Recover the amino acids of this structure.
């Protein structure tokens, strides 16, 4: 008797297959964990892939020190529950120079995230890193392989990618090279939400609407998450019912006004919305049309 | 922008249901199946426009993206004031600048019944490898034809490649019908023309649809402009066509083992993605290549133990007995196991700028098996435009050829036509680690079954201990005229004085006897080294210290010999003589193309 697998069952099977290939072929894999919804799904898939063993690699959080407080809480809880080692890395140079999103603009992302990630991978000697990027997020990601090779200096060459046929992944690499692996490449935003819904996966409460202190700045609705937020002249935080479609550094992440307090309502809102999820992220817009492609070449995830 | 959303709504998603009862919507959405397909066409066939149309009609394009698209279209677009969908699909800066699609892009959309992953493949001949890549995971191919131009060379190429990769569902989308006034006669002439070509390459069934990606005709609904067309519109066809995984379930069980799951002494499971068939607790299985049998005791997942698992699922299987099973093995139905062999006929698509080196050892990855392989000289290559067979010595980038190959140990396989998972393979360069080729196994040459290893009682250790020495292969490499033979000869003399049992294999001497049938083509040079390696290995097995003197400029070939021997037994000695000195002391004229500088030695 035949049974037609649903699209989520097939996406799940594909992601699990990818993770097992990496564990079988890489020397020292790691999972990049950013605490967002995509990371939440990726972590859940990892637990499924290796059950009853715990996933045989640590979680790495490249911290910018500017994430939402609720993200740090969930991060520590999930590490405990999954039985995985959690490594937190903060770029010491960015720390020392006090790099922050308010005063340093694009340098903030560059130092904390891009440089921080490179330093962390080099420090621990990881040769394969799982990331939660999806092809539907952004144009250059639509063309990235599932196994994406980086030079010893972490550069990406979009014109020199390895062909990826069937489900045969070539994980062999030269000394110094590393691989970024994207097991949920083929998932869409809706798939992610639906999977969270079906599997009851814990996510940061910021995805649900609540009254939160906000200011409106440069067309974005920003949440005043802690007292490091420098208010400009005339700015007074206002309580609004808001939630986030995507989570990053709180000063760089725009909220949407919303009344969606349950997962179903969040999905409903997503389906009826007319803007893409990365729209609330300032980072994609630095440097024009091909900014993400450029960032990736420089070593951004 | 023509054809607003109203038309498409019924097909794609019901906003009303989402707004009124989101849980009911989610319930239907989670039962959707998945179809992966490719679109192929050339620059002007309107491929990107069609994909843009599918995304737009299914509202996968958001307002902010649409705004960006509108401004891009005005700036660099090719559609005047209209939206240029190609800009949405061509993601890399280099592609937008050049106005062409270089790499495969994956796009996603969903209708009420199915979710779709579209691999948008470039059409140029120089991107054949990209199209083959996109096609390898597809259930269906949409082949676009410009109705004004009819069946072109590229149509033939795309159809041939789709057929080669084993795509069973072919859609012939005759596009730009609006530009030929929706002429039925022109459409039918194109279809008839394509039908006769398709039959000649073994495509016996395809579905033709007259469309306009730009205007939206016969995409989501039957168009009033083509009342003479009675088939389904494109989307409806994509929603109902049978997915390969369904037919895969009817085949015998095959699961390549990826990873052995062993959290503690009480649990031992075998993890993998089921390639074909299905499995239940209690089923009799056989592990290949060992042939050992057992019974499935349970199928484990994080959520629950399964009563049954089918092709396409990633699972962990436990056996009733403790039998050997590890990564690379294949778990199969006990009464219908796949074949095991080490010599095959295959079709290979070459993917790398560096051409195939006949006789060189590459890695072959098939399922979860990774073995060393050598490829013979191709029997022929196929001209992808005319389907003519041509003689060839090697395979260049984008070439497709039929060749025999031999693996260094037997692998579990099935003909590609029966199973993509156990018949499709990639070739990996051992030095650069690049994926240089992809291929499809057709059948076993069956020689493997007739050649067995004969165990002998006197081991290589016994041979060596009698001579009171450790076997070694001292591999002298260097330029012609570098003095490697002279030095090797001197070293052997010294060893002889020390009562060591030695033998010197010299390049020129071997070519008078064992290798006198070999010339100086690249394939012959590699074969020359391979044979010398095998002879050196036999002599080392006999306990000797072997000295060899060969130019052997390629690391790949030196590594091939190194791997024939136990770890540490192969010692490479590079005689680093400056080029001018080597040339001066060379007794015979150096053959053209055989002289290598020190830099090349290091680089290769």
């Amino acid at each position: 008797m035949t049974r037609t697998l649903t699209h989520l069952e097939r996406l799940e099977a594909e992601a699990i297959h990818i993770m097992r290939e990496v564990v079988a072929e890489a020397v020292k894999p790691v999972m990049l964990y950013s605490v967002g919804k995509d990371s939440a799904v990726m972590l859940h898939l990892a637990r499924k892939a290796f059950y009853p063993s715990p996933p045989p690699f640590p979680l790495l959080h490249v911290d910018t020190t500017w994430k939402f407080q609720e993200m740090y809480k969930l991060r520590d809880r999930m590490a405990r529950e999954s039985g995985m080692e959690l490594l937190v890395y903060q770029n010491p140079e960015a720390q020392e120079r006090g790099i922050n999103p308010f005063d340093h603009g694009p340098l903030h992302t560059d130092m904390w995230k891009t440089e921080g990630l490179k330093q962390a991978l080099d420090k621990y000697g990881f040769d394969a890193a799982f990331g939660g990027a999806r092809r539907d997020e952004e144009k250059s990601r639509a063309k990235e392989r599932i196994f994406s090779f980086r030079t010893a200096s972490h550069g990406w060459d979009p014109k020199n990618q390895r062909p990826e046929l069937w489900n045969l992944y070539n994980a062999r690499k030269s000394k110094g090279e590393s691989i970024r692996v994207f097991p949920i490449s083929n998932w869409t935003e809706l798939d992610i939400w639906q999977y969270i819904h079906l599997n009851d996966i814990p996510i940061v409460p910021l995805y649900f609407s609540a009254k939160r202190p906000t200011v409106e700045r440069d067309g974005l609705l920003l949440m005043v998450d802690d007292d490091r937020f420098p208010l400009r002249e005339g700015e007074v935080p206002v309580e609004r019912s808001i939630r986030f479609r995507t989570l990053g550094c709180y000063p760089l992440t725009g909220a949407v006004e919303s009344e969606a307090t349950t997962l179903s309502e969040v999905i409903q809102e997503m389906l009826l919305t007319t803007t893409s999820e990365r729209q609330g992220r300032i980072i994609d817009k630095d440097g024009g049309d091909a900014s993400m492609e450029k960032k990736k070449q420089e070593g951004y995830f | 922008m023509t054809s607003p959303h109203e038309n498409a709504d019924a097909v794609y998603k019901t906003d009303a249901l989402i707004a009124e009862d989101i849980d009911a919507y989610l319930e239907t959405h989670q039962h959707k199946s998945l179809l992966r397909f490719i679109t192929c066409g050339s620059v002007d066939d309107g491929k990107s426009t069609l994909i843009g149309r599918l995304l737009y009609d299914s509202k996968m394009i958001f307002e902010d993206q649409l705004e960006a698209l509108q401004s891009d279209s005005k700036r660099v677009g090719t559609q005047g004031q209209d939206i240029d969908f190609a800009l949405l699909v061509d993601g890399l800066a280099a592609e937008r600048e050049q106005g062409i699609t270089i790499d495969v892009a994956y796009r996603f959309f969903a209708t009420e019944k199915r979710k779709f992953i579209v691999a948008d493949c470039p059409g140029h001949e120089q991107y054949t490898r990209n199209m083959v890549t996109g096609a390898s995971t597809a259930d269906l191919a949409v082949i676009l034809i410009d109705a004004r131009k009819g069946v072109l060379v590229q149509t033939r190429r795309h159809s041939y490649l789709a057929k080669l990769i084993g795509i069973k569902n072919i859609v012939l989308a005759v596009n730009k019908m609006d530009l030929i006034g929706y002429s039925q006669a022109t459409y039918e002439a194109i279809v008839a023309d394509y039908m006769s070509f398709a039959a000649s390459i073994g495509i016996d069934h395809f579905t033709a649809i007259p469309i306009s990606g730009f205007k939206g005709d016969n995409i989501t609904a039957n168009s009033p402009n083509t009342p003479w067309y009675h088939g389904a519109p494109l989307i409806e066809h994509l929603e109902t066509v049978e997915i390969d995984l369904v037919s895969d379930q009817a085949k015998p069980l095959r699961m390549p083992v990826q990873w052995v799951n062993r959290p503690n002494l009480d649990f031992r499971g075998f993890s993998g993605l089921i390639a074909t068939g299905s499995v239940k607790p209690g089923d009799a299985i056989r592990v290949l290549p060992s042939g050992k049998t057992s019974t499935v005791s349970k199928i484990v997942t994080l959520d629950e133990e399964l009563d049954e698992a089918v092709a396409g699922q990633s699972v962990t299987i436990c056996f009733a007995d403790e039998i050997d099973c590890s990564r690379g093995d294949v778990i199969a139905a006990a009464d219908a196991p796949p074949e095991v062999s080490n010599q095959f006929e295959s079709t290979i698509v070459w993917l790398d700028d560096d051409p195939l080196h006949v006789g060189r050892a590459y890695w072959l990855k098939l399922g979860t098996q990774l073995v060393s392989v050598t490829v013979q000289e191709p029997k022929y290559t196929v001209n992808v435009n005319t389907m003519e067979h041509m003689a060839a010595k090697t395979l260049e980038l984008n070439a497709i050829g039929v060749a025999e190959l031999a693996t260094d140990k037997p692998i579990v396989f099935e003909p590609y036509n029966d199973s993509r998972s156990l018949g499709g393979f990639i070739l990996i360069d051992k030095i650069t680690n690049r994926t240089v080729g992809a291929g499809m196994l057709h059948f076993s040459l069956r020689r493997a079954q007739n050649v067995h290893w004969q165990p002998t009682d006197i081991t290589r250790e016994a041979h060596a201990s009698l001579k009171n020495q450790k076997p070694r292969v001292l591999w002298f490499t260097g330029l012609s005229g570098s003095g490697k033979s002279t030095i090797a000869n001197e070293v052997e003399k010294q060893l002889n004085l020390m009562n060591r049992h030695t033998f010197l294999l010299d390049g020129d001497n071997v070519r008078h006897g064992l290798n006198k049938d070999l010339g100086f083509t690249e394939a012959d040079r590699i074969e020359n080294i391979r044979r010398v390696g095998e002879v050196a290995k036999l002599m080392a097995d006999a306990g000797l210290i072997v000295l060899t003197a060969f130019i052997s400029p390629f690391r790949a070939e030196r590594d091939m010999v190194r791997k024939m021997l136990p770890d540490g037994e192969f010692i490479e000695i590079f005689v680093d003589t400056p080029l001018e000195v080597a040339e001066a002391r060379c007794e015979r004229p150096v053959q053209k193309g055989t002289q290598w500088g020190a830099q090349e030695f290091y680089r290769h």
About this structure: DSSP finds nine helices and ten strands in chain A.
